[in-house]
Automatic annotation (TrEMBL):
InterPro entries: Cyt_P450, Cyt_P450_CS, Cyt_P450_E_grp-I, Cyt_P450_sf. PROSITE patterns: CYTOCHROME_P450. It comes from the Eukaryota. This is Uncharacterized protein. Belongs to the cytochrome P450 family. Keywords: Heme, Iron, Metal-binding, Monooxygenase, Oxidoreductase. Pfam families: p450 (PF00067). It comes from Nelumbo nucifera (Sacred lotus). The keyword Electron transport does not apply.
């Protein structure tokens, strides 16, 4: 078993802890989230090192982080119904007639949680993106996983987003420890809209964790 897979199995155990427990208290959740951050931070410490900041060249080596980003995009789609389509002429799809000009919404949120395609689809399982490597990209060609949409109207920002997402997350996790703000409850409630947001924003308190004299602060962990 690779180091990355091993880390993710530990990470999954920590996340199951958060998702499965109906009586989860904020204290136990806080411990679990701390565990998850620790696994990714261990990978960052191996690949990037504690004396450096994350650079673009590190990103392809951060396999745990990549799996977490992909799994996050599976469970928490930014655009749960993609963008509406209007067929330019009537057509038949799966025994249904779609009249010309009708508005068609694709329930990508539901497809990403389809139990026939995903084991325990409501749980956070980043390791599936390590074991089925290569198959789960953002091309929109896999009809079980298309967080950026598919076809001619696929997201125009993929080249930017696929660099930015891991870079921002890696940088934040590498630079800072996080504590939840006093009174914070971890919840997964969603606010429906064109984009899917957390109903209750997560409030964390960052604390520097690296030895980076050039930025004027010191390792605190
Ligand atoms: C996490 C980041 C992002 C996600 C998950 C995302 C997701 C999506 C999705 C699902 C669609 C609809 C595709 C469809 O209906 O098939 C879309 C459309 C679009 N996105 Fe993004 N997007 C992201 C970031 C960006 C960025 C950074 C840009 C621009 C720099 C961008 C520009 C666009 C544009 C212009 C469209 C409309 C494309 C069209 O209708 O032809 N997106 N995006």
């Amino acid at each position: 078993m690779s180091l990355a897979t091993n880390r993710l199995l530990q990470l999954k155990a920590a996340l199951d802890f958060v998702v499965a427990g109906t009586d989860t208290t904020s204290t136990t959740s806080e411990w679990a989230m701390a565990e998850i951050m620790r696994k990714i931070q261990d990978e960052l410490d191996d690949v990037v090192g504690k004396n450096s900041t994350v650079e673009e060249l590190h990103i392809p080596k951060l396999h745990c982080l990549d799996a977490v980003v992909k799994e996050n995009l599976r469970l928490h789609l930014v655009a749960p119904l993609l963008l509406p389509r209007h067929p330019s002429k009537s057509c038949y799809v799966a025994r249904y007639t779609i009249p010309e000009g009708a508005q068609v919404l694709v329930n990508a949120w539901g497809i990403h949680r389809d139990p026939e395609a995903w084991d325990n689809p409501l749980e956070f399982h980043p390791e599936s993106f390590l074991t089925k490597n290569g198959k789960w990209d953002y091309s929109g060609n896999n009809f079980h996983y298309f967080p950026f949409g598919t076809g001619r109207r696929i997201c125009a920002g993929i080249p930017l987003a696929k660099r930015l997402l891991p870079y921002v997350l890696a940088s934040l996790l590498h630079l800072f420890e996080r504590r939840f703000a006093d009174g914070t409850e971890i919840d997964m409630l969603e606010k429906t809209g064109i984009t899917l947001k957390k109903m209750i924003p997560l409030v964390v308190v960052p604390k520097p964790r690296l030895l980076l004299e050039k930025y004027g602060y010191w390792f605190c962990g």
